[in-house]
Structure prediction request, 236 residues.
Amino acid sequence: DTGVSQDPRHKITKRGQNVTFRCDPISEHNRLYWYRQTLGQGPEFLTYFQNEAQLEKSRLLSDRFSAERPKGSFSTLEIQRTEQGDSAMYLCASSLGQGVTRATNEKLFFGSGTQLSVL
Amino acid sequence: AQTVTQSQPEMSVQEAETVTLSCTYDTSENNYYLFWYKQPPSRQMILVIRQEAYKQQNATENRFSVNFQKAAKSFSLKISDSQLGDTAMYFCAFMRPPLFNDYKLSFGAGTTVTVRA
Prediction:
């Protein structure tokens, strides 16, 4: 399977615990994105990487959230001291960036997400 | 930030019929990209169709086509010959042009489409 994979698919945790999610993008893709989706809503952007550099973070990403992409391949998203409001689906996506030119083929491919439930 | 509005929370269509989903967006830019994504119960977001704002021709992918009205900032999706497998949530999304080095998607709230047998 050469798609975007995310692990785990489901995570149930108690309030105050730390959780970490992993995303493996499509192998040749240099851009990687994290989104959060709550029930009945569209995904909201959290952060994005180009190779190993984290280029943008949303204001939604509080200090309790941290994301890494150490070797420009897989990425992890950690949430510290989870709160019930963190319950959501966390989606990862990747794309093959073509630089600062007319990116006529800029398409994001999404994983199946990690569903987080904070009790 | 760009705003994407999908005013139809739910749509129902008979199998083999046609359904049209509406999407409007707000931007001051002249060039940008618009997308429709499908999210079935499996939760996998699947790209359905993509439109580049500088292209006047409406994009088409098999049974899926768009009506892109740039002046009206409208981007509707038409699903023809609806199939049971089209049952899903559909999201309209906006992306700024690459010159801004900003590749994130701004999504609408989604429209749930149910295809009835």
